[in-house]
Amino acid sequence: MYFDLTSLGIHFDTIIIWGLLMACLYNLFLKFAVEDRSNSPLVVSTLMLSSYALSYEIVDLNAGTSIYSIWASYDVVTILILLASHKLLNLRFSASLYYIVIGLSLNTLLYILLHIDIVIYGRTEYWWFWSFFSLGINTIDFFMVVTLIFGKDWLHIGKLFSKRGRNKKISNLKNC
Fold first, then answer.
1. Whether pLDDT at 9 is above 50
2. 106, 79 in Cβ contact below 8 A?
3. Which long-range contacts (CB under 8 A, 24 or more apart) does 77-83 make?
4. Confidence band (pLDDT; 50, 70, 90) for 8?
5. Residue 92, φ and ψ in degrees, nearest 5
6. Using one digit for the tens of pLDDT, what is the confidence trace for 124-160?
7. How many Å apart are CA 26 and CA 94, to the nearest integer?
8. Taking each helix axis from N to C terminus, what angle separates 6-33 and 128-150, rounded to the nearest 10 degrees?
9. Is 160 exposed, middle or buried (0-12, 13-18, 19+ CB in 10 A)?
């Protein structure tokens, strides 16, 4: 029996966009329900929803092998827009922003590596990296959605970016 996994990938993108929509609505609710809540998670989740929804609708899946470089450029532009929006709106960097920037950077790296593998090296036969790519991209997207919903520094990455030092608790990341 043959099972086509390509349609599963398209449906997983829909699930990720739905998750980003739920994260955006949840962060909008928390913005009005919790006092002294940072605007950063709401801005990050809104921009991520916009980016993923636009790339899902605009990108032609029949673009061939150039699709990976297109998706990499979308991720780079999204990172730049996220950082610029925080600077322009004078928002503090939250744990959500750190996790999303790291996740998008990892996705960009995977897209570029797959583009190099298929387009530059011309590899057409299946090998382990293609499975690693598929699993990696989907796992990173899933964890970005989870991070936007829960908004916690669950890997303590915020400590790496803290100017106060590694031993002190980071108070500005508690309501991310």
1. yes
2. no
3. 77/51, 78/47, 78/48, 78/51, 78/104, 79/104, 79/105, 79/108, 81/47, 81/51, 82/43, 82/44, 82/47
4. low
5. -75, 150
6. 888 889 889 988 999 999 999 999 998 877 777 667 7
7. 16
8. 20
9. exposed
How many other CB atoms sit within 10 Å of the CB of residue 147?
Answer: 27
Helices (DSSP H) in the chain: which residue ranges? 6-33, 40-58, 67-88, 95-115, 128-150, 158-161
Q: Is the pTM of this model over 0.70?
A: yes
**For the segment 73-125, what is each residue's pLDDT rounded down to a tens digit?**
999 999 999 999 999 999 988 888 999 999 999 999 999 999 999 989 888 88
Q: 148 with 20: CB under 8 angstroms?
A: yes
Residue type, 167: N
Tokens at residue 104, please? 């998008």
Sequence-distant (6+) residues with CB within 8 A of 170 are 153, 158, 159, 162, 164
